[in-house]
Design brief:
single chain; alpha+beta; 2 domains; three-stranded antiparallel sheet; 2 helices; 12 strands; extended; carbohydrate binding; Glyco_hydro_38_C; Gal_mutarotase_sf_dom; alpha-mannosidase activity; Glycosyl hydrolase family 38 C-terminal domain-containing protein
Length: 199
């Protein structure tokens, strides 16, 4: 149980065996839980060192999502969608330029989250600093287990993770976008499930 305010990037959850509640937010607030009282700090306006910090009009988005059972993948997905809302884009008449299939498909447990995809920063064609450069072209994919578990469960989960990661398929949509020699570098982190979870 969290006693003091902590950073709450996507959601906070308080669950019991049969039910719980999640409070997603748009990635910028503090959160605290004492007993069964959850507190979301919407704004902090300190007077020092800048007396005008955070003054003005703010747009704040948060929601309450009751759920059955403990914290699960559905809460993580709802918080992710809340933080990345669908946006409508106007396109000229004619056929829009869309991809027929997703370039990367993640299969396996629903608690695995494909968080982001980016080019490798040390690739020769995109490197902007003095890091040693690699001639190959790579893609970095962040995949993580959103709900975690105990150490024994986690070790079993790792073997399932390995099987799931082998099934991640990278389809080259355009040779211009990803050359044939592109490598998929997987980096992930595990989080642990606690009675109150802040993400």
């Amino acid at each position: 149980m969290a006693k003091f305010e902590v950073c709450c990037h996507k959601f906070a959850d308080l669950s019991e065996h049969k039910y719980g509640i999640s409070i997603p937010n748009d990635s910028k607030y503090g959160f605290s839980t004492v007993g069964n009282v959850m507190c979301l700090s919407l704004l902090r306006s300190p007077k020092a060192p800048d007396g005008n910090a955070d003054m003005g009009r703010h747009r704040i988005r948060w929601a309450m999502i009751p759920h059955r059972g403990g914290l699960g993948a559905q809460t993580v997905r709802a918080a992710f969608n809340f933080n990345n809302p669908l946006r409508l884009v106007a396109t000229p008449k004619g056929r829009p330029n869309v991809l027929p299939n997703a370039p990367i498909a993640l299969t396996g447990d629903h608690n695995l989250v494909l968080d982001w995809i980016k080019r490798g920063e040390d690739d020769e064609d995109v490197s902007l600093d003095d890091l040693p450069k690699r001639k190959s072209k790579s893609v970095v994919v962040r995949v993580y287990d959103a709900v975690g578990g105990s150490l024994e469960e986690r070790s079993r989960r790792r073997s399932r993770w390995t099987r799931c990661l082998r099934r991640i398929s990278l389809r080259v949509i355009s040779r211009r976008l990803l050359p044939r020699a592109a490598r998929l570098i997987l980096r992930w982190s595990f989080s642990r499930l606690r009675r109150t979870v802040f993400c």
